[in-house]
Amino acid sequence: HRVTVDVLDRLEQLALVDFRDAEGVQRLQKAIQFADQLHEVNTDGVEPMDSVLEDRCLYLREDDVTEGNCTKELLRNAREKVEEYFVAPPGNIPLPKLEERETFLQGS
Amino acid sequence: PRHRGSRFQVSAALQEGRVSPTELCQRCLSLIRSTRFLNAYITVAEETALKQAEESEKRYGRGQPLGVLDGIPIAVKDNFNTAGIETTCASNMLKGYISPYNATVVQKLLDQGAVLLGKTNLDEFAMGSGSTDGAFGPVRNPWSYSRQYKEKSVPKSHSEDKESDWVITGGSSGGSAAAVSSFTCFAALGSDTGGSTRNPAAHCGVVGLKPTYGLISRHGLVPLVNSMDVPGILTRCVDDAAIVLGSLAGHDPKDSTTIQDDFKPFELPSLTDVSKLSIGIPKEYHAPGLSSEILSLWSKAADLFKNAGAKVIEVSLPHTRYSIVCYHVLCTAEVASNMARFDGLEYGHRSDMNQSTESMYAATRREGFNDVVRGRILSGNYFLLKQNYEDYFIKAQKVRRLIADDFVKVFGSGVHVLLTPTTLSDAVPYKEFIKEDNRTRSTQDDILTQAANMAGLPAINVPTALSERGLPVGLQFIGRSFQEKQLLTVAKWFEKQVKFPMIQLEEVKRHDHGIFQHQKSASFS
């Protein structure tokens, strides 16, 4: 089953990563084909496995603050900041639609 | 012929004052400089290393070394956070990123007095099996420059650059493997998600240990697949690996996936009687593409155990061939999630694009990630789409259980340790390697190592012999969960039997002012 442009577009929006060229799309096609081999395996009655440590209790700390106060160190690595804020461009603006975006998919 | 040597040689040398920590550090730094063409290191932390060496020297002077690792030069794969030192994951996304903290494993090594020489090269974000796909270029296998390899190479015409014959290290912890293999450090940290420590260990002729999932803290290791990643240990002999393991293993409150059982560091006994040992040979590991050379070595190894009195039996891990497919889905899915944090806001690369948060994120990620990373993110997102979640992600998780159960059954039947090849062949020349794309390569190369990550089991590569081309070939032992002592004991016995030859490198000989002169000093234990 070939992946439709709609799905490709959706993936670009979800992943915030673009298919740079035909090769990128091809790569996905091949990845799906490869993954389809999973369907050869009979998994009736088999529970999904999240972790090999599923039989153990995960360690949880006490809900106490034990470290922090490292604002300076953390801000040091940010490119855009104002006082103690990370600065982001305006939000709540969805990615341009496929027709308006600069993406390889436009030509599809 | 040089041999592995007895224990605590360099540590003993340090203790007895035959060599000082600063001398040792200087020699390693000097060797790093003269082996720069290997491109094993991304960052060399010369100043801090020398300072650490000086502190170590003071401690030895007072007769108060912190332990066996005090003053020992080590290297760390560049996907571990190291405070004050750039951590790039070999990606443009993190170029210039100075970690504000040390990964737990790094901190533990430093607390033991180890001297951190630098950060080693890898495939970008540890995705790959060649250490060829990083933002700082490929790593060259030191064996490319060994007398053993050169002797076996067909002499080319004068015009052809001998440089272009170099072979890959394997990956993704190629820099760490190369660093240990070329004597620039005594141990290195790698990471292992699908074989990334064992694969380059095999190609570079060093010991590569993948511990049981949950034994060693992942805090500070940039995550790839949270349910499979483990820090890996690369050393020149099995005893050294046990020592490093001893200093790293144990519960970390900062990593809730580390088990809470008490871990006791152990010394490896020198096994003489293997008659009570049961070695399993999984038939499915006779994978398509396995070179006849390696097949033969594997067979010889099995005979070695048999002739020594061990019980050697063929076993079956029926779902082996689906391991790679399963990994492919689970890995890309977790990658899609783990890579979401790279958005340019808090750290790392940030695009100039400023129109909106979304477009800035998209541009940042387009600029920061290479094709391999982006490809996996997109695939992962595909498998996680609502319409695909059950068919791919959940399905893969079910298959994972089947794979893990295969091992449970085999170990449950009385087998102590499994013996398999680590790689399908010896290291290929770079020129040949890059003809295929990263995903295809990873698919092929991870086949023998990947299942151990699926099941969370400990596994180790032990250098076994040189191939016809004069390059290292290793064999892999897979052990029972949290039974590292048993696994390493068997590995050590095997290592002693095969007497893997030491690499003969010009550069090392030139620096050989007595430190590396005796093979004994090449290991620290």
Structure description:
The complex is a heterodimer of chains A (about 110) and B (about 525). In chain A, about 30% of the residues lie in helices and about 5% in strands. Chain A is mainly α and about 110 residues long. Chain A has a domain at about 1-40. The longest helix of chain A has 14 residues, at about 20-35. Chain A starts with a helix and ends in a 22-residue tail after the last strand. Chain B has about 525 residues and is an alpha/beta fold. Chain B has one domain (about 15-155, about 160-325, about 395-500): Amidase signature (AS) enzymes (Alpha-Beta Complex), CATH 3.90.1300. Chain B is built from 19 helices and 11 strands. Chain B has an 11-stranded mixed β-sheet, sandwiched between helices. In chain B, strand 10 and strand 11 form a beta hairpin. Chain B is globular and about 65 Å long. Classes of the chains: A mainly alpha (about 110), B alpha/beta (about 525). Chains A and B meet through helix 1, helix 2 and helix 3 of A and helix 10, helix 11, helix 12 and helix 13 of B.
The Cα radius of gyration of chain A reads: 22 Å
**Overall CATH architecture of chain B:** Alpha-Beta Complex
Number of helices of chain A: 3
Rounded to the nearest angstrom, the radius of gyration of chain B is 22 Å
User: Beta fraction of the residues of chain A?
Assistant: under 5%
- Percent strand of chain B equals 5-15%
Low-confidence stretches of chain B: 1-8, 513-522
Report helical residue fraction of chain B. 25-40%
SS elements, strand count of chain A: 2
Largest beta-sheet characterization of chain A: 2 strands, antiparallel
Average pLDDT reading of chain B: 92
Helix content of chain A: 25-40%
Which structural class matches the secondary elements of chain B?
Answer: alpha/beta
Main interface by residue count: A-B, 58 and 69 residues
Sheet with the most strands: spatial strand order of chain A: 1-2
Organism (chain A): Urocolius indicus
Protein name (chain A): GATC amidotransferase
InterPro entries (chain A): Asp/Glu-ADT_sf_sub_c, GatC
Keywords (chain A): Transferase
